[in-house]
Prior knowledge:
The complex is a heterodimer of chains A (339) and B (222). With 339 residues, chain A is an alpha/beta fold. Helix content of chain A is 34%, strand content 30%. Chain A folds into 2 domains: 2-244, Rossmann fold (3-Layer(aba) Sandwich), CATH 3.40.50.300; 253-338, Alpha-Beta Plaits (2-Layer Sandwich), CATH 3.30.70.260. Chain A has a 6-stranded mixed beta sheet with strand order 6-7-8-3-9-10, sandwiched between helices. In chain A, strand 4 and strand 5 (67-68) form a beta hairpin. Chain B has a single domain (2-219), classed as Orthogonal Bundle (MetI-like fold), CATH 1.10.3720.10. The chains are: A alpha/beta (339), B mainly alpha (222). Chain A binds chain B through residues 52, 54, 77-82, 84, 86, 88, 90, 92-97, 105-106, 108-110, 137-139, 153, 157, 163, and chain B through 121, 123-124, 126-134, 137, 141-142, 145-146, 148, 219, 221-222.
Amino acid sequence: MIQLKGLSKAFQTKTQTVTAVDNVSLSIDEGEIFGIIGYSGAGKSTLVRLLNKLETATGGEVTIEGESITSLKGQSLRSARQEIGMVFQHFNLLWSRTVAENIAFPLEIAKQSKQKRNERVQELVNLVGLEGREDSYPSQLSGGQKQRVGIARALANNPKVLLCDEATSALDPKTTDSILALLTDINKKLGLTIVLITHEMHVIRKICHRVAVMESGRVVEEGPVLQVFRNPREHMTKEFVRQITEPEEDASEIVFDEEENGAVVQLKFLENKAEQPFISKVIRQFDVDVNIIQGKISQTQRGSYGSLFIRIKGSSEEIDKALAYLREEEIEAEVMERA
Amino acid sequence: MLNTWMEEINWENMWVATWETIYMSLIAVAATFLLGTVLGVLLYLTDKGNMWENKPVHTVTAAIVNIFRSIPFIILIILLIPFTTFLLGTMLGPSAALPALIIGAAPFYARLVEIGLREVDKGVIEASQAMGASQWQIIQKVLLPEALPSLISGITVTGITLVSYTAMAGVVGGGGLGNLAYQEGFQRNNNEVVFVATVLILVIVFILQWIGDIWTRQIDKR
C-alpha cells in the first residue's frame, strides 16, 4: 500500500551535507502496523515526514495507494495530507481550543459543515474514550488524555494511513500501554495502516506486525517482528532485541553452584512453544528435577518468545534424554554448564 | 479650601479634553492593532525558517519598523506635519494627531506581535500542515488564536504608551488633556488644571490596563 523506492533526504549545512535518510526502500502492506526503530539521529523522524511530504525528498519516491506523494504540490498535496493522519510525541494540540474543537480542527480544514463536524467529533470522542472531557482545554488533561485527543484528531478525516512519530515516548509506561492498546484496537476496528516510529523496542514488540531497523539513515534489517526478534542478524538489531528479551541479568552473571550436580541450560523458545507445558512434560517423562533459575517470556502481536535458564538435576543419562526431547520439540537448548 | 481650589478649573473644557483624549486613544489603538498585527505577521512569516521566508522583504520591513520605532515621538509629529496636512487639510485638533499616533505606535506593536507569534509552538504549525491546512488557514486558525494572549497584553502596553503620546501630541495642537494641561495649565500658570488633567490621564491608563489584564486572563488557557 505504501511504497518507498530509493528514498533519500540530505540536509545542506554551511560546511557539509548531512544524509538523514539514505536510499531507503520499503513496502508497507494495507492494514498492518509497521514499526521503524532506531536511536535518535538514525533518520526515522525524517523518514516518517517524507511520507506526508513535511520534508521534501532529495531522491527516490513515496507512493501511497499508487499516488506519488513526492511529486504532489499545493492543493493536491493538501488534499492528500488529509488522508494521512499524524500523531506526535508532544501531542501538538492547540491550547486555545477545547478537546472537541481540537478534534474538529482537521474537519474545519477539510471544510466540513458544522453539523457533520459535531457528529464526527462525538464519534471520535467515544472511540478514544474521552467522554465527558469534550469541553476541557488541553492544559487540563493528562499526557495520556492529550495523546488520545491527538489520535482522535488524526483520525477525523478517515485517513488511509496513520503516522505515529514517537507517539508514546513522552508517556509513562502504564499510559504507554493504554495508548498502544488503543492503536491496536483502531488498527483492528478500522483496518487502518499504521506506520510507527520509536526508539523503544517494547512498543515494537507489543503492537507491530513488521519492523524495520534504522541506523544512520539506512534500513539495516527488516521483517516480521517475531522473526527479527528471534534471529536478529545485524548488531544494531541485536542490541535492540536484547533490551527486552534478556533476563535482568546477563547469562554470565548466573552463579554456578559447584556443589550442585546436573546441567544449567538456556532454553530459547521458537514459534508458540513458550505457551506449552514443556517443563512439566520433561519432569514427568524423565527421571530429572528441574529448577528454574531465571527467564523472560515476551508476547508479540503474532506469538510469544523468550528464553529461560533452568537447572536440570539427575543422572547424566536422563539429562541427555531430557535435552534430546526438548531439541526434538524445536526448543533451542544450550548447555551453559554441566557438572 | 477644596472648593476655592477647584473653582479655577473650567470643567466643561476639562470634559471636552477628556473625551478628545479618549477618542484619540481608542481610534489610535484600533488602527495600531490592525496595522501592527499585519506588520508583525509579515515580520514573522518572512523570517528565516518560516512559511514565507524571504530575506529582502524581511530586511526592508524590519528596517522600516526600526526606523519609526526609534524616532522620538515629539520629533515624529513634527516630521509628519506635511503628511498630516496633506491627509486632513489641517494639523490642529484631535483627528490631526491620529496619523502620527498610529505611525509612531504600530511599529512598536508590530515587534510585540512578532515576539508573540514566535512563541507559538512550531509543532502545532507542523501538525496543521500535516492535516493539510493552507497557509491562510494556519495564519487565521493557528498563529493568531494561539498568540492571542500575547497580542492582547501587547496592545494593552501599546495603548498605555498611546495615551501618553496623545498628551505629547496635545502640546503641538492635537487637543485633549495634554493640550489643556499645557495651554491652560502651564502657560497660564494654573497648576490645578495640570493636576486634574494628570489624574484623568492616570484614570484612563488604569482602566485600560485593567481591561487588558482581565481580557488576557480570560482567553489564556495555557
